[in-house]
Amino acid sequence: MMTFSTIFGLALAVFFVIFRMISKHRYATMNELFNRQHELELRHQSLRDRKRTLERELADKGQALTALKSNRFEIRSISVADLEADDTDENEKIGRYLLNQGKITQEQHKRALKKMEILKMDYIGVCMALGFIDLETGRQAEKAGKLSSPPL
């Protein structure tokens, strides 16, 4: 029959086997949790970085929108007398008309005046070539320019 020491030895062996299995399971679970934590920390960091980038972009675009709104109101309105002024050439009249109508910006107006010499085109043609205005807007501007010109 089994003696006390054999039973004790067998119980001790079973205890160590069970203890070893529990330790291995604990170690594997801890590694899995550590890896999961590391993945979540990396994802959290990337999301925080993305949030900061988006907040900066939002602030920049808000400032740009504010600048555009303020620039829009800085455009000087012109009167019929301004359009009929003899000291202004045809291109300036058409440019002021387009500026007043909000069809082009001041920067686009200056750029079109500079490109006229290079492209050897009239003001409306340059604006259409650069994509500032479409054909219908060009026709309206030309008509406005002709109406403001004194008859020959």
Key terms for this structure?
single chain; 152 residues; mainly alpha; 6 helices; 80% helix; 0% strand; rod-shaped
Question: Helices, strands, pairings?
Answer:
Elements: H1 4-74, H2 80-83, H3 90-101, H4 106-119, H5 123-129, H6 135-148
Helix pairs in contact: 3-6, 5-6
Q: What sort of overall outline do the alpha carbons produce when their principal axes are compared? A: rod-shaped
Structural class: mainly alpha
**Main beta-sheet annotation:** none
User: What amount of the residues lies in strands?
Assistant: under 5%
Average pLDDT, rounded to a whole number, is 84
Taking the alpha carbons of the first and last residues, their distance comes to 135 Å
- Evaluate the radius of gyration: 39 Å
pLDDT < 50 runs, ≥5 residues:
none
The helix/strand series, from N terminus to C terminus, equals HHHHHH
Helix content: over 70%
Number of strands: 0
Oligomer: single chain
Tally of contiguous helical segments: 6
Structure notes:
It is a single chain. With 152 residues, the chain is an all-alpha fold. Helices cover 80% and strands 0% of the residues. It has six helices and no strands. It has helices at 4-74, 80-83, 90-101, 106-119, 123-129, 135-148. Helix 3 crosses helix 6 and helix 5 (123-129) runs antiparallel to helix 6 (135-148). The longest helix is centred in the first third of the chain and has 71 residues, at 4-74.
Summarize the structure.
By secondary structure, the protein is mainly alpha-helical.
